[in-house]
Amino acid sequence: MVESPIPAADVAATDSTTTATRVNVRTCHPEDRVREYLDRGWWQPDTLPELLQCRIDAAPDAPAATDPANLAALTGAEPRTLSWRELDEHILDLAAVLYRNGIRQGDTVAVLLPNSIALTATYFALWRLGAVATPMPASYRRHELSGIVSAAHATAIITAGQLSGRELACEAMEVMGDERTVFAFGPGVPDGAILLGEPADTADRERLRFYVSGLTVSVNDRVTICWTSGTEAAPKGIPRCHGDWLAMAWGVQDGLHLTPESVLLNPFPMVNMAGFAASFLPWLLTGGHLVQHHPLDLPVFLGQIARHRVTHTSMPPALLTMLLHNESLRASADLSSLRRVGSGGAPLPPIVVRGWQDELGIEVLNFFGSNEGVCLLGAPVDFPDPEIRAQYLPRYGAPGVHWASRLADRTAVKLVDVSTGATVTEVGGTGELRLAGPAVFGGYLAGTASAEPFDDDGFLCSGDVFELCGEDGRYLRFVDRTKEIIIRGGMNIAPAEIEGLLADAPGVADVAVVGYPDPVLGEKCCAFVVPAPDATVTLDVLTEHLRAREVASFKLPERLEIVVTLPRNPVGKLLRRELRATLTGDQP
């Protein structure tokens, strides 16, 4: 008897997305939309495993991926570098073991691994089987893990035996119970978990090949269910398919300009937009050498740049600022191979972006993206002036303007006044960014979101407030998240704007601005500051710094809290709710 490639239950199951159209549980978008994107060339027919095979065929013996240099200290496993051929063999072994233990097309498998070759290969092994990966930052623990496993209906989890003193596989076994399978890379894999990383036998490989040859695969098939960062609420599941991930990846690659000779160092967890779209997928599109890093450890990070002659990487704005201003640290690091650095997630100080370009000869790209499909890219070809590039992003679709990213001509963008619902057309006006196009997801995972993410015209409501700027409104300037705007006596204050201005204030190493209740004005501004070593920061210092930049008086912080560190989620986004909770006494 020949085994059916797709279990009958998977064929019949459907999952209502938050759009009006119901789509198959294995897919992400309505079929008419898929046909339109393919016909217009906005999506390509290639799947992620097919692109991997192209890379293997093109340069089988070239280095493909390298583990973090400190992997042994993290997991007990020795770091290694694999060629594309060796990576393919490793993926085949993993997929054979997963198949032998029941993983099939349409299954959702939770993934809890640090950046590594193991994580890279795990994704491809699942995708070869037609399974869906639901990845999580390795720092997640039992509370987050159990919620995501339940919401995604995960049938198994793939993790490591240990990580930085934690027994990850044991934690996973307690969450998964007896009804779900736990796979783990060694060392430290406990009894009851299935060991990964060993060669598969010939029979297992043949069974795998027979199964895969019978699969029917579409570029609309789900490949991941990622999760919102949870900065303001419980995480929401974001299903994505081959087509929309690769549309976003090409949009980023148009700014990165990776080649098969590029060496890309990835410091962000490869679990969502930051890791996938800024590193993993552009690497898959073009080839080259992907060097993994996790968690952010500055000496290790700088050492990897020098050792592997890294040409491209990503850094949060705070690290860009610190490296530029710390000449002794920079002198100890060899950054001479770097050509381009992507940054985002917080306002970029213009003077820092100029310093990296003029003093170090390294171009900083301004990224703004979201898991749901926002992908705006400030590339040097579009913004030759680094200070302009730091402050603004392209307004895709601006009349008469050509942008470097191919997403620009394929994405419809508008700003909508959140109070009136009117489209913002005047330069200087602000509104919520809304967009539609081939990189936008199809809707949240059923049961994880309480609100519709699209407006009546089918545009994604991003929740991000931008200002229309520049000649003929060709630029967008990020103002803040709609939920984070502070309203003081009827006047709106954007925390991100004030944070950007305070980033280079005397003695400030890191800063966050949040609102706190006021019985008269409704809200006031509080600045949370991490002082630089041996520095003293006062409220007067901050307000004078802002006044010197002629900032409106109602925007000045009226309270200062000195802290050792700021709370951030695993991908570096600020957790403002935790800061607000310290001011109000509420539980975050």
Automatic annotation (TrEMBL):
Which parts of the sequence belong to the AMP-dependent synthetase/ligase domain?
A: 65-445
Q: Tell me which UniProt keywords the record has, alphabetically.
A: Ligase
- Which residues are in the AMP-binding enzyme C-terminal domain? 497-573
Q: Which organism is it from?
A: Nocardia suismassiliense
Record lineage: Bacteria, Bacillati, Actinomycetota, Actinomycetes, Mycobacteriales
Q: Which Pfam families match?
A: AMP-binding, AMP-binding_C
UniProt-listed InterPro entries? AMP-bd_C, AMP-bd_C_sf, AMP-dep_synth/lig_dom, ANL_N_sf
Q: Which family does it belong to?
A: Belongs to the ATP-dependent AMP-binding enzyme family.
Q: Which domain of life is it from?
A: Bacteria
Q: What is this protein called?
A: Class I adenylate-forming enzyme family protein
